[in-house]
Design brief:
2 copies of one chain form a homodimer. Chain A is of the alpha+beta class and 161 residues long. Chain A contains 4 helices and 7 strands, in the order βααβββαβαββ. Chain A is 30% helix and 38% strand. A 7-stranded mixed beta sheet of chain A has the order 1-2-3-4-5-7-6, sandwiched between helices. In chain A, α1 crosses α2.
Chain lengths: 161, 161
């Protein structure tokens, strides 16, 4: 049974472990591989407008943040980022987080959601976001330095809420 | 005679006046219209990797910043923003700033430049960036809340360096 709830202070260590594992992998997020804990948690958990965790049997298996994609005149569009623990992938947790985030974003009054850097080689993510109603608005050539594949393309994806 | 040089502390008031005028106009940049001086200068002048001004007869008539568009694995692509004083537009200053920024970006080792939010109704800018070698990679529907026209589209534009 998966429970998605607001992140609490006591989740910081678990979020950092998950964040650090995903970022160290170097295949999906642009954060520097050697990012430190305080900075990582600031960007993922503290600065965004909201941060949630997915809990299963007392363990954090996923997390997402929600924030304005642009300030001021662009602040009616939000941005979100999602991470699922490596050993919990392929079980619908990413989809559950995305569905939760779409509802949370509507509740916060956002009119659209935009992803700025969906790594094109991350086919599972691209497939899931399409299934969740996102369109590929454009593809930026070689803007992501993939840890294994070198420079690869990334998509800008968008959907109305 | 136009002189483009690194912004100095003594330029802060002039940059703020220019920044504030452009932002208050509400037709080209997403910064909140009521942004305060310290925050505006932090975003435009202090946080970016470089900030330049265009000086003519002792007055600041334009400015631009240059920064990483993404951290870490996306930090080989830069982002830039440009502003020209209202009474100095249509005189090639925007183009001079852009040409200067392309050289400065190459010198800093960037491999590409990306604009994330080129307001589609700002036809002079779209035309100039195309002339400067940028492609429209995609168009985001109604992501900019234009002060006069309401929600309008914005382009993501990109060129290699």
């Amino acid at each position: 049974m998966l429970n998605i709830r607001s992140a609490q202070c006591r989740d910081r260590d678990a979020i950092w472990t998950l964040f650090h594992d995903v970022v160290s992998d170097g295949t999906t997020y642009a954060y520097p591989s050697d990012i430190e804990k305080a900075e990582g948690l600031r960007l993922w958990m503290d600065d965004p407008r909201a941060c949630y965790v997915a809990e299963r049997e007392g363990a954090i298996v996923g997390t997402y943040y929600l924030k304005d994609n642009q300030p001021g005149r662009g602040a009616h569009v939000c941005n979100a980022g999602y991470m699922v623990r490596a050993d919990a992938r392929g079980q619908g947790i990413g989809q559950a987080l995305c569905e939760h985030s779409l509802k949370a974003a509507r509740r916060l009054g956002y009119e659209a959601m935009q992803y700025n850097l969906v790594v094109a080689t991350n086919e599972a993510a691209v497939h899931l976001w399409k299934k969740m109603g996102f369109d590929i608005v454009g593809t930026l050539p070689e803007v992501f330095d993939h840890a294994e594949k070198g420079l690869v393309d990334a998509h800008v994806m968008y959907r109305r809420l």
